[in-house]
């Protein structure tokens, strides 16, 4: 099965609405007409509306950086799936290592959010990854398997088809360090095998698995050349139109 490359920008807690609008306008100009690669941008909640309106008539999709698993209620500061949908979101990032590290998210809460997103019609980008200590202990695959299976508990064969997995070695996020292409491919292949064990090989072959550990224009071609690396969940390089455009171009050339 031929999977499409997917380049998704996670803007994290950066860009005011006016700054986000300027970046979105530049991206629409540069890559808004790209059809052979899936592209998404995930700004802060405060910029979803303005960015959504700018990218609406382009091929760039809108995503959010998080959501709550309940549809409504007394959850001050949280955002529900239908709120994201009304703003035009197609994707939502779930279980990012920074959410796990700073906001005590667990495999259980990531699973609840994943199921809620799927049921609402959003496509979850589910993040998994090991810390430096876990890699040095030699338990990377055990950690990845636990996180993947935990996030997808109760997700049916139909539901998994809307899920994107992002492998983000925690030790390579925002540090400038990057797993070698061989290291990244080893984990991506293991994730696909884990999916195949649960859903069958045909379904697993259709799931996009992104690399989320400091992918930049310089290392993207070698990473994207790997069999099971289907794109990137981009942090720092997504904050500038030039570098994000270059990453999309790398996917087009892969």
Keywords:
254 residues; 8-stranded parallel β-sheet; 44% helix; TIM Barrel; alpha/beta; globular
SSE arrangement:
Layout lengths: L5 E5 L6 H15 L6 E5 L5 H8 L4 E5 L16 H6 L2 E6 L2 H6 L4 H14 L2 E6 L3 H6 L2 H12 L5 H4 L3 E4 L13 H19 L1 H5 L3 E3 L8 H5 L6 E4 L6 H13 L1
Parallel strand pairs: 1-2, 1-8, 2-3, 3-4, 4-5, 5-6, 6-7
Helix pairs in contact: 1-2, 1-12, 5-7, 7-9
Helix content: 40-55%
* CATH A-level architecture: Alpha-Beta Barrel
> What count of helical segments does DSSP give?
12
CATH class: Alpha Beta
Tell me the structural class.
alpha/beta
CATH topology: TIM Barrel
Mean pLDDT: 95
CATH-assigned homologous superfamily: Aldolase class I
Number of structural domains = 1
Distance between the ends: 16 Å
Tertiary shape: globular
CA-based gyration radius: 17 Å
The major β-sheet equals: 8 strands, parallel
Q: SSE order, as H and E?
A: EHEHEHEHHEHHHEHHEHEH
Quick structural overview:
The protein has 254 residues and is of the alpha/beta class. The protein has helices spanning 17-31, 48-55, 81-86, 97-102, 107-120, 132-137, 140-151, 157-160, 181-199, 201-205, 220-224, 241-253; strands spanning 6-10, 38-42, 60-64, 89-94, 123-128, 164-167, 209-211, 231-234.
Structural account:
The chain is α/β, with parallel strands linked by helices and 254 residues long. It has one domain (6-238): Aldolase class I (TIM Barrel, Alpha-Beta Barrel). Helices cover 44% and strands 15% of the residues. It contains 12 helices and 8 strands. Strands 7-6-5-4-3-2-1-8 form an 8-stranded parallel beta sheet. Helix 1 (17-31) runs parallel beside helix 12 (241-253) and helix 7 (140-151) crosses helix 9 (181-199).
């Amino acid at each position: 099965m031929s999977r499409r490359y997917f380049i998704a920008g996670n803007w994290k807690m950066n860009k005011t609405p006016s700054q986000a609008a300027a970046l979105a306008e530049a991206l629409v100009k540069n890559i808004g007409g790209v059809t052979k690669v899936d592209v998404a941008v995930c700004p802060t909640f405060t910029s979803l509306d303005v960015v959504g309106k700018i990218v609406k008539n382009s091929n760039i999709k809108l995503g959010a950086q998080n959501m709550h698993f309940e549809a409504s209620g007394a959850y001050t500061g949280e955002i529900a799936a239908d709120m994201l949908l009304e703003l035009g979101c197609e994707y939502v990032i779930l279980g990012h290592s920074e959410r796990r590290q700073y906001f005590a998210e667990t495999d259980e809460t990531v699973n609840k959010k994943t199921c809620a997103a799927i049921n609402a019609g959003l496509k979850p980008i589910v993040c998994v990854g090991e810390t430096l200590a876990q890699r040095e202990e030699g338990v990377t695959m055990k950690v990845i398997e636990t996180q993947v299976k935990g996030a997808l508990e109760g997700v049916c064969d139909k539901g998994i088809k809307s899920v994107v997995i992002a492998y983000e070695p925690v030790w390579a996020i925002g540090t400038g360090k990057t797993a070698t292409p061989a290291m990244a491919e080893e984990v991506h292949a293991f994730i696909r095998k884990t999916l195949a064990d649960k859903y069958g090989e045909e379904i697993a072959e259709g799931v996009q698995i992104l690399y989320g550990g400091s992918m930049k224009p310089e290392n993207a071609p070698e990473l994207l050349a790997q069999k099971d690396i289907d794109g990137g969940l981009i942090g720092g390089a997504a904050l500038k139109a030039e570098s994000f455009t270059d990453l999309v171009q790398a996917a087009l050339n892969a």
